[in-house]
Specification:
Its main location: membrane. The chain has helices spanning about 10-20, 35, 50-60, 75-85, 100-105, 130-135, 135-145, 150-160, 165-175, 175-185, 205-220, 230-240, 255-260; strands at about 5, 40, 70, 95, 105-110, 120-130, 195-200, 220-225, 245-250, 265-270, 275-280. With about 300 residues, it is of the alpha/beta class. Strands 1-3-2 form a three-stranded parallel β-sheet, with helices on one face. A three-stranded antiparallel β-sheet has the order 4-11-5, with helices on both faces.
Length: about 300
């Protein structure tokens, strides 16, 4: 199978390449959607299961042999989307919910009649083996950490509006005392115990990780929040160099990592449900299904 991954390292490179596609608006062009976007789907980091699923399954299953998925990051994807949206130009991105972009722009998921992206995913909390014995109060808090998409989207929007992640987390925690109390119920205060949390630089995971850091620190932990890629995040919890992560997208996005390290971590279950994966376009584009990408 032809390699469908094009490496791009910065948001500038992404947006430049998209601008080079021609800039014709979907509504005013007789060209196919593929020609309008140069047969490119703007993706995120290559370690994401969403990328692997799109490249290895969605493109071949829908017969999109001429299409490519542009490799970048969540931030680069968002920058490319904003540039295209502001000019009402066509663009297709790999997308997921919850994400602040759905609050900022009028977007829609392309229908997936083959069901390759599956149904809603969960975001799980994964901790290292032995955490319950070493840090029982952190373990209990993490085990009780549950919230809804509207909660995390509030934090994400605060960050998108210019707040630092730690500041956004602090604001949200102070305004949601009743929910936070359910996380800390039965949890004892500690005295400066060190705790390492690993996270990937995805907008939702940044938000959730900083919120959990804030609450852990409120009960006396000294939390070292360490940003890594998805692979090292899983490897770090599996080998014990990291204590926990709260951004494990399952059963699809992180399926390969889960299988690779299974038996070397403890899965505390979902902290967030009702997520979604797929291909996303602006609502002004005259396209509704992945099947419409075929000429």
């Amino acid at each position: 199978m032809l390699k469908k991954l094009v490496g791009v390292t910065t948001a500038l490179a992404l947006t430049f390449s998209l601008a080079a596609c021609g800039g014709e608006q979907t509504g005013g062009s007789s060209d196919s959607v593929g020609k309008q976007v140069d047969y490119k789907i703007v993706g995120i980091d290559p370690g994401a299961g969403l990328m692997k699923l799109t490249i290895d399954e969605v493109l071949p299953e829908y017969g999109l042999d001429d299409w490519k998925v542009v490799e970048g990051s969540g931030a680069a994807m968002a920058a490319a989307l904003k540039k295209a949206y502001d000019k009402e130009e066509p663009i297709i991105v790999t997308g997921w919910s919850p994400h602040w972009k759905f609050a900022s722009y009028d977007l829609k998921y392309l229908e997936d009649p083959k069901g390759i992206y599956g149904g809603a995913e969960d975001v799980n909390t994964i901790v290292r083996q032995g955490l319950k014995e070493d840090h029982p109060d952190a373990f209990k808090l993490l085990d009780q950490f549950k919230w809804e998409p509207e909660h995390i989207e509030t934090v994400m929007n605060l960050i998108q509006e210019g707040k630092e992640p730690a500041e956004a987390a602090s604001m949200w925690v102070s305004e949601n005392e009743e929910l936070v109390n359910t996380w800390t119920e039965g949890v004892n205060k500690v005295n400066g115990e060190e705790f390492k949390m690993l996270y990937v630089a995805w907008d939702d995971v940044i938000a959730s990780s900083h919120v959990v850091q804030n609450v852990l620190e409120s009960i006396g932990y000294e939390v070292d929040l360490i940003q890594v890629d998805a692979g090292p995040m899983w490897a770090g919890v599996a080998d014990g160099s990291g204590d926990a992560m709260v951004g494990a997208w399952l059963p699809t996005t992180h399926a390969d990592y889960y299988a690779e390290y299974e038996g070397k971590f403890e899965d505390l279950g979902a902290n967030l449900t009702g997520t979604k994966l797929g291909l996303v376009v602006p609502a002004y584009m005259d396209i509704d299904s992945i099947e419409d990408l075929k000429e």
